[in-house]
Design brief:
This protein is an alpha+beta fold. It has a single domain, classed as 3-Layer(aba) Sandwich (Glutaredoxin). Helices cover about 50% and strands about 10% of the residues. The strands form 2 sheets. A 4-stranded mixed β-sheet has the order 2-1-5-6. A two-stranded antiparallel ribbon has the order 3-4. A hairpin with an 8-residue loop joins strand 5 and strand 6 (about 220-225). The relative contact order is 0.22.
């Protein structure tokens, strides 16, 4: 079974994430996106849902650029970026310690750091894809977790090639592979994959889930939204039951 998710927020984030969860022994490459805060929460909800439902999942990430026009150098301080793009009310919501997002994050152990930069994330996506090309999907998943933690909690610059090269080295990606993955030609391929994904699946926001039953059907159950674990668990259970 395969599951993916996306969710729109009040600003175009530096990263959006999309997940593919496959309960089949062999799963196809499917959608994924960059890091949006609700997606980090959605990942934790998905993990809880899998555990509570007893339905094991195979996870795959693929690129989805919520803001494909983000400059290479990024958008500067994220609060300033929000004010410029959406006005003061967006920044006020972002800074509210008791916003729905902040409460949902704390409930699953995530304390968001607001002192971040708005970043271009094609390079980060490209390195995740590089691990997948090498047949290292589990390492790609672990690297995505590192990127979430580093950006949302530690406020690291996950667009810095030097930082990325060092961060991914523990997963067996050497400097030459990094240089190729983060080269202009490969980054253009990442942008094309993003456009193709949006066109093929009609995805415009995150988190977005696609659940493929075990029986091999090409038609997934698809839904979007930062749903609580019990809702996702029900979807996993139904998909699992339909394939038995």
């Amino acid at each position: 079974m395969t599951c993916e998710f996306l969710f729109p927020f009040f600003y175009n984030p530096p990263l959006v994430l999309q997940i593919v969860v496959d309960l089949r022994e062999q799963h196809p490459s499917d959608l994924s996106s960059f890091f949006l805060q609700f997606c980090f929460v959605g990942l934790r909800h998905l993990e809880v849902a899998s555990q509570s439902s007893g339905v094991p999942i195979n996870l795959e990430w693929m690129p989805f650029l919520l803001n494909p026009n983000m400059p290479d150098e990024g958008g500067g301080n994220i609060v300033d970026y929000l004010v410029q793009k959406y006005g003061p009310s967006a920044a006020a919501s972002f800074n509210d310690p008791n916003s729905r997002l902040k409460q949902m994050g704390r409930a699953v152990g995530i304390v968001f750091n607001n002192d971040r930069q708005a970043l271009n994330t094609k390079r980060a996506h490209a390195l995740v894809e590089q691990l997948k090309v090498k047949g290292e999907n589990e390492k790609a998943n672990a690297f995505m977790e590192d990127l979430y933690q580093s950006y949302f909690v530690d406020a690291q610059n996950i667009n810095d090639p030097v930082w990325l090269t060092q961060a991914v080295s523990k997963y067996g990606v050497d400097e030459q592979e990094c240089a190729f993955a983060m080269g202009d030609q490969n980054l253009a391929a990442i942008a094309k994959l993003d456009r193709d994904t949006k066109s093929q699946y009609g995805v415009s926001g995150v988190p977005f889930y696609m659940i493929y039953p075990n029986h091999g059907s090409d038609k997934p159950v698809a839904f979007s939204g930062a749903y609580p674990p019990e809702v996702i668990a029900k979807q996993l259970e139904e998909a699992s039951a339909s394939s038995s």
